[in-house]
Write a structure and sequence with these properties.
Bound molecules: zinc ion
Order of helices and strands: EEHEEEEEEHHEHEEHEHE
Strand content: 25-35%
Number of strands: 13
Radius of gyration: 17 Å
Number of helices: 6
CATH class: Alpha Beta
Strand order of the largest sheet: 4-5-8-7-9-12
Structural class: alpha+beta
Largest sheet: 6 strands, mixed
Helix content: 10-25%
Distance between the termini: 23 Å
Number of domains: 1
C-alpha cells in the first residue's frame, strides 16, 4: 500500500506503491489514476482504500485534474471534495482534508509545516519543474500561515533513467543546470528531482528525498511502482497523500 508513511505530531503523509488494490492486468493492483483504461469504479475503490490506510475518511479526499501547469488551488473550508479542480498543486490549512497528487514517473511532492498545520501536494513533471510549481506551492502555503516547511520527494523516474532528446536537455539544463544528466546507457537525460530539490532549497524548504533511503525509481521498480515510460498509456498511477489530522 505505502512505499513510505509517516505520522508527525499533527500531519499524516504517505506515498503509495502498486500493492494492495483491486485492479488487475497491467493496472495491478493499486492503480489510483483514471483515464488509462482501468475500470473507474475500481479506481475509486483503490483511492478510498489508500485514504483509509492513511487513517482518513474517503469523503475528505481532494484530487486534481493535473495538466502539467503551475496553478495552485487552496482547499478552503467547505470545499466539495468531488470537484476535481484543474490544477497541479493543492494546499490547505483545513484539518481533515486529504490532499492527493497522482503520478507515474513525474515527481510527487508532499509538503507540510507540522507546527502550523499547513500542508500541500504538487505534481512536477518536466514542465512543472520548468514552471517551478514547487515554489508556487510553497508561497501558497506561506499565505496560509506556514513558516517551517518540509518537502518530501516521492517515487519518480530517476536522472539515470529519464532519457530526453539532446535539445530538450540543453533547454532545461540551460535554465536549471542541476537537471543535466546522463542515462545509465549514456544518452541525454534530466534529473528532475535534483532540480526540484534545488528550487525548494532556495525557497527555504527542508527537503527529504525518498531516493536517499529507499529504491524509488519508478522506471527501475517494476515490482513496486507504475512507470509511464515503461508501461505507456496503460500505466497506473501512484499517489502522494497528506492531511492535518482533524
Ligand atoms: Zn532509474
Amino acid at each position: 500500500m505505502f512505499a513510505f508513511h509517516e505520522s508527525l505530531s499533527r500531519v499524516d503523509l504517505a506515498f503509495t506503491d502498486r500493492h494492495g488494490g483491486e485492479s488487475t492486468g497491467p493496472w495491478a493492483s493499486l492503480n489510483l489514476g483514471a483515464g488509462n483504461g482501468d475500470d473507474e469504479a475500481t479506481v475509486r475503490r483503490n483511492v478510498a482504500a489508500a485514504v483509509r490506510a492513511l487513517g482518513a475518511d474517503p469523503s475528505d479526499a481532494h484530487l486534481m485534474r493535473q495538466v502539467h501547469g503551475a496553478d495552485v488551488r487552496v482547499v478552503a473550508s467547505g470545499a466539495p471534495p468531488a470537484a476535481h479542480p484543474e490544477a497541479d498543486a493543492l494546499v490547505t490549512a483545513r484539518p481533515g482534508a486529504v490532499l492527493v497528487v497522482r503520478v507515474a514517473d513525474c515527481l510527487p511532492l508532499v509538503l507540510a509545516d507540522d507546527d502550523a498545520g499547513v500542508v500541500g501536494v504538487a505534481h512536477a513533471g518536466r514542465k512543472g519543474v520548468v514552471l517551478d510549481v514547487a515554489t508556487a506551492t510553497v508561497e501558497a502555503m506561506r499565505d496560509l500561515g506556514a513558516r517551517r516547511i518540509t518537502a518530501w520527494i516521492g517515487p519518480r523516474i530517476c536522472g539515470r533513467c529519464y532519457e530526453v532528446p539532446e535539445q530538450m536537455r540543453a533547454d532545461v539544463a540551460g535554465r536549471l543546470p542541476v537537471a543535466w544528466s546522463q542515462t545509465s546507457w549514456d544518452t541525454p537525460a534530466l534529473d528532475l528531482a535534483a532540480a526540484a530539490a534545488e528550487q525548494l532549497d532556495k525557497a527555504g524548504v527542508h527537503v527529504v528525498d525518498l531516493a536517499d533511503d529507499l529504491a524509488v525509481c519508478t522506471y527501475e521498480g517494476e515490482t513496486d511502482f507504475y512507470s509511464y515510460r515503461r508501461q505507456g498509456v496503460q500505466s497506473g498511477r501512484l499517489a502522494g497523500l497528506v492531511r492535518v489530522r482533524p
